TrEMBL record, chain A:
<feature type="transmembrane region" description="Helical">
    <location>
        <begin position="303"/>
        <end position="321"/>
    </location>
</feature>
<feature type="transmembrane region" description="Helical">
    <location>
        <begin position="15"/>
        <end position="35"/>
    </location>
</feature>
<feature type="transmembrane region" description="Helical">
    <location>
        <begin position="47"/>
        <end position="66"/>
    </location>
</feature>
<keyword id="KW-1133">Transmembrane helix</keyword>
<keyword id="KW-0812">Transmembrane</keyword>
<feature type="transmembrane region" description="Helical">
    <location>
        <begin position="175"/>
        <end position="193"/>
    </location>
</feature>
<dbReference type="Pfam" id="PF02653">
    <property type="entry name" value="BPD_transp_2"/>
</dbReference>
<feature type="transmembrane region" description="Helical">
    <location>
        <begin position="260"/>
        <end position="291"/>
    </location>
</feature>
<keyword id="KW-1003">Cell membrane</keyword>
From TrEMBL, chain B:
<dbReference type="Pfam" id="PF00005">
    <property type="entry name" value="ABC_tran"/>
</dbReference>
<dbReference type="InterPro" id="IPR003439">
    <property type="entry name" value="ABC_transporter-like_ATP-bd"/>
</dbReference>
<protein>
    <submittedName>
        <fullName>Sugar ABC transporter ATP-binding protein</fullName>
    </submittedName>
</protein>
<keyword id="KW-0547">Nucleotide-binding</keyword>
<dbReference type="InterPro" id="IPR050107">
    <property type="entry name" value="ABC_carbohydrate_import_ATPase"/>
</dbReference>
<keyword id="KW-0067">ATP-binding</keyword>
<feature type="domain" description="ABC transporter">
    <location>
        <begin position="6"/>
        <end position="241"/>
    </location>
</feature>
<dbReference type="GO" id="GO:0005524">
    <property type="term" value="F:ATP binding"/>
</dbReference>
<keyword id="KW-0762">Sugar transport</keyword>
Length: 328, 498
């Protein structure tokens, strides 16, 4: 085992991420054996649809968790952004591109709010994001007068944004462009986290905020930035979500928080901050998406899916906390 | 004074690499207040921890009430009647006074806590001690002095026979101290044995009967307070040991310009009207006992804590430092006394920690130039002889001395003109220590200026060109290295008013 860990290739990719990837493949194999329909292309597309928006949420929250904070508002913020921009598109007839920008803007504003309160007012991120979760639910609901919003289909006017998620060729083949979009987003996030000053400071703040402050760094600014990135990605997730599922209802979205955070933690990002892995988050999200699709394919109800996901998250968090404790 | 109640004889205790207690003696009689004195690190607290069973002694005997005992934990000691009133109070501020006093042994009516009975018992206790505190008051609403009274009352309610006070007056006002002394005298009347740990020479004369002095983990002697002078005690504390090569003259030329001037600095409770000047190429030693306000002064100058009033001049120009970021912009670097909490990010690499204060110099567009970062980090690893397999090593895997070198590298990379070294060699082995001394001397030769806070007298006398002494937030002495000696510094460090 030690020898395996020291292999140059494995070292570069990261042993834990490799294990995670093997888990992903194993899960896929198990589901394929237990449920013959699971191997169909449509099933895969359906699982991927779930992974796209969840991936954006998880990428964002990875930055927040890297600082040692948490954001429980991302799911409802995503819905709030989709509701407001969708309402403006379908009811007020605003141009599509503007509505997409508004969606991102709504997410960013929530990120600014969370980030400002946590970084500058020193409020605990747990409570702050709980409050903004309620705000997001409420505002989305008020804006649309508690109506659900349906974004246009691919063939309809203004439906071209769906090409971000899926392209249907003339012979009926479906191309999962969303996967490409998510990979590009992941690469950009990985670059930000690992190669830029912002990422460096975000990780260092998670490791020891006071030491970073006493190094003359404006820690408030960088800590806030993590939440802003998270919010912006939640706004983008909204576009991806409606690109896959069209309809958003007010007052929902909180289950996605947990799944996104679970994917992130499974990927090896420490809940205590300081270490984070975008690649891990990516695979973690695929596992969550596969799990949810697999459980449905096996004929279990949604509530069983919660039970199983809950248990898996517990195991992941336990392993996460243990491995980081051992290090210190 | 009555018969002997507690005897500690030949107490010996070693930790890996440190001989913390070397055959120490202590004898406490009934109806006596016995002072335990010594410099920081002399072993007073260790001795008390051995007494109450927090540490296990390697050798020696403890005789209590005529029988040899060995407590294995503080609870056991407490039950036998030996109790410590700690310097930091262990109080739960949201509970009432009575609830705090009876914590862990609440008075019950069946399964339900009986608050009124506890209040009544607390009131009786207070009456006995002539303490005027409402038992139903929330602990957090009391002054520190009153909280201390509660802690004492708690000790007495355990029917203690020996009470150890660990620097009880550190946070008290003049009138609170008077009140405390009244209670201590009262306890003495009641034939309790009292151990009184304090740095304040004046109090020792007022309240104690005998003094036991410790130095460097060893037992120096026990004398009667009445027949001895302050000088006798100081001489016992510092000893007559000749330490290796103390500096005999300042290396700073007399005309050296002032790089940092602090005027009437006030910050919180621990920095009161502090003024001093730092010259180019100088090592300015800051001496004083624990809690003298040296670290607080450094943090205020560095912008880590807010300043209430006062002015700071750098190279003659007034500067406004509101945050560490401002301080760093002005060329000040601060090496904290508490490396783990304030110095390093442990899960980050040596390279990442080294550039933490100067990342702006390592940018290539929006990206960090990791090659340059690694090269510079490597250069300082070599220069400081930091023992690490590579600059990619996580700092958590380094020893204390090497972690300290990484923090020093952080400020060297930043190229600060003024460096504040707060206890730079605390918890560091001898080899690394002399390397750090050597480095500081190199730095001042290069024209940097250093403020060195140190609780080690030898370090102060060996490194400083000039010495500032603080006591209770005030500057109580300033002397050239020629004037500085253990005695003169100790005098200033125990002076109550500046």
């Amino acid at each position: 085992m030690e020898k395996l860990k020291n292999n140059a290739f494995i070292k570069k990719v990261g042993f834990n991420r490799l294990v995670l990837f093997v888990v992903l493949l194993l899960m896929y194999g198990i589901f394929a054996i237990l449920s013959p329909t699971f191997l169909s292309y449509n099933r895969i597309l359906s699982a991927l649809n779930y992974a796209y928006f969840l991936g954006f949420l998880a990428l964002g929250v990875t930055f927040v968790i890297a600082t040692g904070g948490i954001d429980f508002s991302i799911g409802p913020v995503m819905f709030c952004a989709a509701l407001i921009s969708g309402y403006l598109l379908t009811q007020n007839g605003l141009p599509l591109i503007l509505c997409l920008l508004i969606s991102i803007l709504v997410g960013t504003l929530f990120g600014c709010l969370n980030g400002y309160l946590v970084a500058y007012w020193n409020l605990p991120s747990f409570i702050t994001s709980m409050a903004s979760m309620m705000l997001a639910k409420g505002i989305g609901s008020v804006f649309t007068k508690t109506q659900s919003v349906s974004w246009p289909q691919a063939v309809q006017e203004n439906g071209e944004f769906r090409k971000l998620v899926k392209i249907m060729t003339s012979d009926g083949t479906q191309i999962p462009t969303g996967l490409v979009v998510l990979i590009i987003a992941s690469v950009i996030c990985a670059v930000i986290l690992n190669k830029t000053k912002a990422g460096r400071y975000i990780l260092c703040i998670g490791s020891n905020k006071e030491a970073v402050r006493l190094s003359g760094v404006n820690v408030k600014k960088w800590e806030m930035l993590a939440y802003v990135i998270c919010g912006t990605l939640a706004g983008m997730a909204a576009i991806i979500f409606v690109g896959a599922y069209s309809t958003v209802q007010p007052g929902l979205g909180d289950t996605y928080n947990n799944e996104a955070i679970a994917g992130c933690v499974m990927g090896g990002t420490a809940m205590s901050g300081g270490t984070a892995s975008i690649g891990g988050t990516f695979i973690g999200v695929l596992i969550i998406a596969l799990l949810q699709e697999g459980i449905l394919a096996m004929g279990f109800q949604k509530d069983w899916q919660y039970v199983i996901t809950g248990l898996i998250v517990l195991v992941a968090v336990y392993a996460n906390v243990r491995s980081h404790k051992r290090k210190n | 004074m009555g018969e002997v109640i507690l005897t500690m004889k030949g107490i010996d205790k070693s930790f890996p690499g440190v001989h913390a207690l070397d055959h120490v003696e202590l004898e406490v009689k009934k109806g006596e207040v016995h002072a335990l004195m010594g410099e920081n690190g002399a072993g007073k607290s260790t001795l008390m921890k051995v007494l109450t069973g927090i540490y296990k002694k390697d050798e020696g005997t403890i005789t209590y009430e005529g029988k040899e005992v060995e407590f294995t934990n503080p609870k056991e000691a407490q039950e036998a009647g030996v109790m410590i009133v700690h310097q930091e109070l262990n109080m739960l501020s949201h509970l009432t006074v009575a609830q705090n006093i009876f914590i862990g042994r609440e008075k019950m009516s069946g399964k339900i806590i009986n608050d009124s009975q506890m209040n009544k018992a607390a009131r009786e206790l207070f009456d006995k001690l002539n303490i005027d505190i409402d038992p139903t008051e929330q602990m957090g609403n009391l002054t520190v002095g009153k909280q201390q009274m509660c802690e004492i009352a708690k000790a007495i309610s355990h029917e203690s026979k020996v009470i150890v006070f660990d620097e009880p007056t550190a946070a008290l006002t003049e009138s609170e101290i008077e009140e405390l002394f009244k209670i201590i005298r009262d306890l003495r009347e009641k034939q309790l044995g009292i151990v009184y740990i304090s740095h304040r020479m004046d109090e020792i004369k007022v309240i104690t009967n005998r003094v036991t002095v410790m130095r460097d983990g060893g037992y120096v002697g026990t004398i009667d307070t009445e027949t001895s002078t302050k000088e006798d005690i100081i001489n016992m504390m510092v000893g007559r040991v000749i330490y290796e090569d103390p500096k005999t003259a300042s290396n700073v030329p007399s005309g050296a310009p002032v790089v940092l001037e602090v005027k009437d600095l006030n910050a919180g409770k621990m920095v009161k009207n502090v003024s001093f000047k730092l010259h180019k190429g100088e090592i300015l030693g800051f001496s004083g006992l624990m809690g003298a306000g040296r670290t607080e002064t450094a943090r205020a100058i560095f912008g880590a804590d807010p300043i209430d009033s006062g002015e700071i001049f750098i190279n003659g120009k007034k500067v406004n430092i509101k945050s560490p970021s401002d301080a760093v912009q002005n060329g000040i670097g601060y090496l904290s006394e508490d490396r783990k909490r304030f110095g390093i990010a442990v899960e980050k690499t040596v390279a990442e920690n080294s550039t933490m204060a100067s990342l702006d110099h390592f940018m290539k567009g929006i990206f960090i130039d990791k090659k340059k970062e690694a090269d510079v980090a490597k250069k300082y690893v070599e220069q400081l002889k930091t023992k690490t397999p590579s600059v990619e090593q996580l700092v958590v895997n380094l020893s204390g001395g090497n972690q300290q070198k990484v923090v020093i590298a952080k400020w060297l990379v930043r190229d600060c003109e003024i460096l504040i070294f707060d206890e730079p060699t605390r918890g560091i082995d001898v080899g690394a220590k002399s390397e750090i001394y050597h480095l500081m001397n190199e730095l001042v030769k290069m024209g940097k200026s250093i403020i060195m806070i140190s609780s080690e007298m030898t370090e102060i006398l060996r490194m400083s060109d000039r010495v500032v002494v603080m006591c209770e937030g005030r500057k109580t002495g300033e002397m050239s290295i020629e004037e500085a000696s253990q005695e003169t510094i100790m005098h200033a460090a125990t002076r109550r008013e500046g």
